Amino acid sequence: MADILHSCTDEGIAAAAVASIGGPFAAAIRLEAEHRGLSVGALTASLVAAFARNASERDWRELSVNIAGADLPVLFGLQAMAERSLRQRDQATRARPVRDGRTAATGALAGPALLFGPG
Fold first, then answer.
1. How many angstroms separate the CA atoms of 74 and 3, rounded?
2. CA atoms of 56 and 47, how far apart (whole Å)
3. What are the backbone dihedrals phi and psi of residue 103, each rounded to the nearest 5 degrees, phi first?
4. Quick check: helix, strand or coil at residue 105?
5. How far apart are CA 115 and CA 39, in angstroms?
6. pLDDT digits (tens), the chain, 119 positions
7. What is the pTM of this model?
8. Is the dihedral of CA 107, 111, 115, 118 positive or negative?
9. Residues 95, 98, 102, 105: is their CA dihedral positive or negative?
Protein backbone atom coordinates (compact mmCIF):
# COMPACT_ATOMS: atom_id res chain seq x y z
CA MET A 1 0.00 0.00 0.00
CA ALA A 2 2.97 2.27 0.43
CA ASP A 3 3.45 2.05 -3.36
CA ILE A 4 -0.09 3.35 -3.92
CA LEU A 5 0.34 6.24 -1.50
CA HIS A 6 3.79 7.14 -2.79
CA SER A 7 2.94 7.02 -6.48
CA CYS A 8 -0.74 7.97 -6.65
CA THR A 9 -0.46 11.14 -4.60
CA ASP A 10 1.53 12.47 -7.57
CA GLU A 11 -0.94 14.14 -9.96
CA GLY A 12 0.72 12.89 -13.13
CA ILE A 13 0.90 9.29 -11.98
CA ALA A 14 -2.63 9.44 -10.58
CA ALA A 15 -3.99 10.71 -13.93
CA ALA A 16 -2.18 7.96 -15.82
CA ALA A 17 -3.49 5.34 -13.41
CA VAL A 18 -7.09 6.53 -13.85
CA ALA A 19 -6.64 6.38 -17.62
CA SER A 20 -5.26 2.84 -17.30
CA ILE A 21 -8.25 1.73 -15.25
CA GLY A 22 -10.63 3.34 -17.74
CA GLY A 23 -14.31 2.46 -18.02
CA PRO A 24 -17.04 3.85 -15.78
CA PHE A 25 -14.55 4.64 -13.02
CA ALA A 26 -12.45 6.91 -15.22
CA ALA A 27 -15.56 8.55 -16.68
CA ALA A 28 -16.92 9.29 -13.21
CA ILE A 29 -13.58 10.69 -12.04
CA ARG A 30 -13.42 12.94 -15.14
CA LEU A 31 -16.93 14.25 -14.48
CA GLU A 32 -16.22 14.86 -10.80
CA ALA A 33 -12.94 16.62 -11.63
CA GLU A 34 -14.71 18.88 -14.14
CA HIS A 35 -17.42 19.63 -11.59
CA ARG A 36 -14.81 20.67 -9.03
CA GLY A 37 -12.64 22.57 -11.51
CA LEU A 38 -9.70 20.21 -11.03
CA SER A 39 -7.61 18.04 -13.28
CA VAL A 40 -8.17 14.28 -13.09
CA GLY A 41 -4.74 13.90 -11.53
CA ALA A 42 -5.31 16.58 -8.90
CA LEU A 43 -8.67 15.13 -7.88
CA THR A 44 -7.38 11.56 -7.77
CA ALA A 45 -4.26 12.47 -5.80
CA SER A 46 -6.41 14.35 -3.28
CA LEU A 47 -8.76 11.37 -2.94
CA VAL A 48 -5.85 9.00 -2.24
CA ALA A 49 -4.42 11.46 0.30
CA ALA A 50 -7.88 11.78 1.93
CA PHE A 51 -8.12 8.00 2.24
CA ALA A 52 -4.69 7.92 3.89
CA ARG A 53 -5.75 10.61 6.39
CA ASN A 54 -9.23 9.35 7.18
CA ALA A 55 -9.26 5.57 6.80
CA SER A 56 -9.90 3.49 9.87
CA GLU A 57 -7.85 0.44 10.77
CA ARG A 58 -10.71 -1.66 9.41
CA ASP A 59 -10.57 0.20 6.07
CA TRP A 60 -6.85 -0.48 5.79
CA ARG A 61 -7.29 -4.16 6.67
CA GLU A 62 -10.08 -4.62 4.10
CA LEU A 63 -8.04 -2.86 1.44
CA SER A 64 -5.01 -5.00 2.23
CA VAL A 65 -7.00 -8.22 1.96
CA ASN A 66 -8.60 -7.16 -1.33
CA ILE A 67 -5.32 -5.98 -2.87
CA ALA A 68 -3.60 -9.27 -2.03
CA GLY A 69 -5.54 -11.16 -4.70
CA ALA A 70 -5.64 -8.44 -7.37
CA ASP A 71 -3.85 -8.79 -10.71
CA LEU A 72 -2.91 -5.10 -10.65
CA PRO A 73 -2.82 -4.23 -6.94
CA VAL A 74 -1.79 -0.58 -7.33
CA LEU A 75 -4.62 0.17 -9.77
CA PHE A 76 -7.11 -1.82 -7.70
CA GLY A 77 -6.03 -0.03 -4.54
CA LEU A 78 -6.18 3.39 -6.18
CA GLN A 79 -9.71 2.76 -7.39
CA ALA A 80 -10.86 1.47 -3.99
CA MET A 81 -9.31 4.43 -2.16
CA ALA A 82 -10.74 6.99 -4.58
CA GLU A 83 -14.24 5.49 -4.54
CA ARG A 84 -14.30 5.34 -0.74
CA SER A 85 -13.10 8.94 -0.42
CA LEU A 86 -15.72 10.15 -2.90
CA ARG A 87 -18.48 8.31 -1.05
CA GLN A 88 -17.37 9.87 2.22
CA ARG A 89 -17.24 13.36 0.69
CA ASP A 90 -20.68 12.86 -0.81
CA GLN A 91 -22.13 11.72 2.50
CA ALA A 92 -20.49 14.59 4.37
CA THR A 93 -21.71 17.27 1.96
CA ARG A 94 -25.10 15.88 0.96
CA ALA A 95 -27.77 18.46 1.70
CA ARG A 96 -30.59 17.25 3.89
CA PRO A 97 -34.15 17.61 2.53
CA VAL A 98 -36.56 19.84 4.40
CA ARG A 99 -40.33 19.25 4.69
CA ASP A 100 -41.30 19.99 1.08
CA GLY A 101 -38.46 17.99 -0.47
CA ARG A 102 -36.22 21.02 -0.99
CA THR A 103 -32.74 21.16 0.47
CA ALA A 104 -31.97 23.39 3.39
CA ALA A 105 -28.73 24.60 1.79
CA THR A 106 -30.01 25.67 -1.64
CA GLY A 107 -33.77 25.53 -1.69
CA ALA A 108 -33.51 23.23 -4.72
CA LEU A 109 -35.46 20.02 -4.96
CA ALA A 110 -33.53 17.15 -3.42
CA GLY A 111 -32.76 14.05 -5.44
CA PRO A 112 -30.35 11.14 -5.63
CA ALA A 113 -26.82 12.12 -6.58
CA LEU A 114 -24.56 9.17 -5.79
CA LEU A 115 -21.66 8.67 -8.17
CA PHE A 116 -20.45 5.33 -6.92
CA GLY A 117 -23.41 3.84 -5.06
CA PRO A 118 -24.16 3.76 -1.35
CA GLY A 119 -21.26 3.82 1.07
1. 7
2. 15
3. -85, 145
4. coil
5. 18
6. 666 766 677 899 999 999 999 999 999 999 999 999 999 999 999 999 999 899 899 999 988 988 888 889 889 999 999 999 988 877 776 655 555 555 444 444 443 333 444 44
7. 0.72
8. positive
9. negative
